[in-house]
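WARN retry 2 of 3 for item q-0093 after timeout on previous attempt; input resubmitted unchanged.
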Amino acid sequence: MNRMLAGIISDTHDNRTNIVRAVELFNRKGVSLVIHGGDMVAPFTALDFRALNCPMEMVFGNNDGERIGLVNSFRDIGNLLPGPRTFSFQGKKFLLMHEPGCLDDVAGAAGVDVIVYGHTHEVDVRLGHPLVINPGEAGGWLTGKATMALLDLETMTVEIVSLDS
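OK item q-0093 returned
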């Protein structure tokens, strides 16, 4: 397991085929944490995320209607909480949210190293401090492009990876 590599995904929107592809890639790369920016949608998506070799940090998205079911389904996989919320991993402080409404206001927040968000279905990587990452949509339903991101926590570099086969 690469302790300094995190996987970032968002807006999977029940696309189980792409979730399986993402999980396989995260496991192959040896990520030590997967961060989900919301909109898993249905609790059954946990069936595919269970194959991860690492824990997850997650927030609810605006399409995550069955929240109790999602929390129960993901309980053994990681932390699924309302956003925005913070957590620390490998010495970095993360701010995780789904909708970017307050993004510009919090981008300069002291002590936050990485901001992860979703919702827009568009890739957005802003270098600097804090590093801002939207991995785009993993579901691929809206834009026709399915993407996710890999974050090297040592170099603070981001690679956007296509899930399209």
